Amino acid sequence: MSTTTDQIQGGGTCAELPERTLDRRELRDLVNDLAAHPEEWRDQVDFPADGGRHYASLYRDAYVDVWLLCWRPEDDTGWHDHDISSGAVHVVRGALRECNPRIGGEHLETVVPAGQSFSFGPDHIHRLTGAVDESVSIHAYSPPLWRLGQYSIDGTGVMRRVSVSYADELRPMDDPITSVA
Ligand SMILES: [Fe+2]
User: Fold this and answer.
1) 67: closest CA among 12, 9, 141?
2) Nearest to residue 148, comparing CAs of 174, 118, 124?
3) Which phi and psi angles does 19 have, rounded to 5°?
4) Could you tell me which CATH number the domain at 24-165 has?
5) Secondary structure element (H or E) that encloses residue 151, with its range
6) Which residues of this UniProt protein bind Fe cation (predicted)?
7) pTM of the model
8) Helix or strand or coil: residue 13?
9) What spacing in Å lies between the alpha carbon of 16 and ligand 1's midpoint?
10) Residue 88 CA to ligand 1 centre (angstroms)
11) Is the pLDDT of residue 178 over 60?
């Protein structure tokens, strides 16, 4: 794992955000604006030679946090929610695969290519992986991530939630032998 805490200072896209929680539309506008200003994040893109994940905190205040994530196909968040936070994601390079769990059925799968974004509320449960090698995405959450729910689904379809810290690296919790995912 490789991280950096360098953050946008001064006149960046995040400088004029309102001092309150942002809704889904505002979060999507924010990640879209950031995607249009690569000078604010491009120096944070990195794919470590040791194969570890790389993510960078671009901005964090009392109301919103913004991350840049770099993805390889083996990077897998596992099933998770964002507790009380809404979020938005803009894919700026490559493509991400988003899956949503369907208990007792086939999970929903969507490939989000570069140039597209999506948003979600606190009710959203998903799993993200890199759909192609060396993909990059920008994520914004409001209120800032603090706790997340990490899920496992066992071979009988029973889903369980564990509360984790935003500082923990998300990873699959499914039993690899019995998983139906
Ligand atoms: Fe997520």
Assistant:
1) 141
2) 124
3) -90, 65
4) 2.60.120.10
5) strand 147-153
6) 80, 82, 126
7) 0.89
8) helix
9) 25
10) 9
11) no
Q: What is the pLDDT of residues 94-114, one digit of tens each?
A: 999 999 998 878 999 999 999
Q: pLDDT for 54-70, tens place per residue? A: 999 999 999 999 999 99
39, HSE (Cβ side, Cα atoms, 13 Å): 4
DSSP states of 85-146: -EEEEEEEESEEEEEE--TTSPPEEEEEETT-EEEE-TT--BEEEESSSSEEEEEEEESPP-
| pLDDT above 60 for 176 | no
Q: What is the DSSP letter of 76?
A: B
In DSSP notation, 152-178 reads: EE-TT--EEEEEEETTSPP---S-TTT
- Helix (H) or strand (E) holding 32, with range, is helix 24-35
Task: Say which residues have a Cβ less than 8 Å from residue 37's Cβ, sequence separation at least 6.
Answer: 12, 13
Half-sphere exposure of 141 (CA within 13 A, CB side): 20
Q: 15 is written with which tokens?
A: 């400088």
Compute the distance from residue 126 Cα to the ligand 1 centre, in Å: 6
Pick the closest to residue 93 from 137, 57, 33 (CA basis): 137
